[in-house]
Amino acid sequence: MPATVPLTTVPLTTLTTPVTSTPSRLALMTDQQQLPPGWTQPAGAPYPIPSGWPGATQGNRLGEPRNPVIPDCRPGPFVWRDLLAVLGYVLLFLLGLGALMLFIPGFVSFSAWLVGTDPVSVEDLARGVFPVEIGFAVNLINYLIMTVLVLIAAGPTLLSSLRSFRRLWPLKLLMIPAIWFGTIIINLVVTVLIGEVPSSENQLVLEEMTTVAPFWLMFITVVICGPLVEEYIFRHLLIGKLSRWVTVWVSVPISVITFSLLHFIGAGQFNIIETIPYAVMGLAFSLVYTLMKFSLAFSYVQHAFNNAVSVCLLYLTPAELLEQGREQLGAAWWFTIAPWAGLA
User: What digits encode the pLDDT tens for the residues 170-225?
Assistant: First the structure.
């Protein structure tokens, strides 16, 4: 039986190509510039050991670190799961088919039980009286359904984009409240310039729901499910995947405009001034998503933080002080309670 030579005893020179008189590309790179961080060069070797060879260090062939400060999280092309999620969003929110839950036996009683109130009578429903707890229950179920569809369509992408927090994560976490505060300042400046205080029916409905819905249910709806659904629709699809066909200079305005206008679906009236805070927030989320190289996780955390502050302010502030602040401070108070989508 012939003797075998362990791999560790094989000299490196037997695994590499002898250096000829013609310098290689890697040799020229070594002569012209310093070795990139993370590369090692054994004694006598004219060039760094490429990744995959014995003794090579982690990194790609250009010497870039395997975990860059801002990793590229660009999504792939549109798939059938995206169509399923978009169809669900159109049916439930744009066409309002979620309201058909009212015809499900026991749904009115369930919505009252959910928030701990007495169910509305059939006579009141026949007269067109729909209490706020019914609207909250419909929105909660709509968002739960959409969250499942979004996780089916983009769950792996959401998890993989978490690597955007892998490098310099303390600094990136500090960016989130800084960006939120910056949007407030921008909204205040715009309000002073136009000389008019925006008022949104969507925001008033949100405040009314906090008077009947428990905090934990509102937190699930507004902070966990709502931002995930919106970031998937308006950033992941309209910017991330659409930018494969058009430039981001086109996809970002499309995202901002649709994000702003869809907050007013079902509203009795529309005023262009009312879209300002939503446009500012939509632009902030879009820039975060783009500058973080299409990280769905980062824009989702930014949006969730924005809504978490809003919900906490609404629940921790007494109703009398909330009304007084809205009357006396106007935009300064209204813009602190940042907008969110889905309450039509």
Answer: 899 999 999 999 998 888 888 788 776 666 667 777 778 888 899 999 999 999 99
The single residue listed with the structure tokens 């979004």 is: 150
The sign of the dihedral angle between the CA atoms of 248, 309, 94, 141 is positive
Nearest-angstrom CA–CA distance, 235 and 256: 9
Number of structural domains (the chain) is 1
The verdict on residue 123 lying in a domain is yes
Query: Residue 168, by phi and psi: left (phi above 0), alpha (psi -120 to 50) or beta?
Result: left
Largest CA distance in the chain: 96
What angle do the packed helices 276-291 and 296-316 form, to 10 degrees?
A: 140
Query: Do the Cβ atoms of 240 and 89 come closer than 8 Å?
Result: no
276 occurs within a structural domain = yes
What's the pTM value of the predicted model, to 2 decimals? 0.74
Residue 25 is assigned to a structural domain of this protein: no
Q: What are phi and psi of 168, to 5 degrees?
A: 55, 40
Q: Which range of residues forms the domain containing residue 313?
A: 80-334
Confirm whether 58 is domain-assigned: no
